[in-house]
Amino acid sequence: AFSLFDRTACRYASHADLLHECARLGIPTAKAVHGHGACSADGLRALAAIRYANGAHAEGVVIRALDSSWSFKVINLAYKG
Description:
This protein is an alpha+beta fold. Helix content is 23%, strand content 17%. It has helices at 15-25, 41-48, and strands spanning 5-6, 11-12, 60-64, 71-75.
């Protein structure tokens, strides 16, 4: 899981609430990648240039505020989905 939508409140739950609910239900969460200093276009591209354990390129990374108020995806330019 990488996000949790609260249908009652009509908003995305905070990251802390996501972690709590996933732990309670035994649902694995997406790996958190911290990109402090990745605020430039080059830094974001470098952050997205990741590979899975099997060597395949990941599609990219989702950048999200901890309160889930905004998010965007950075595509890995090497990904050939």
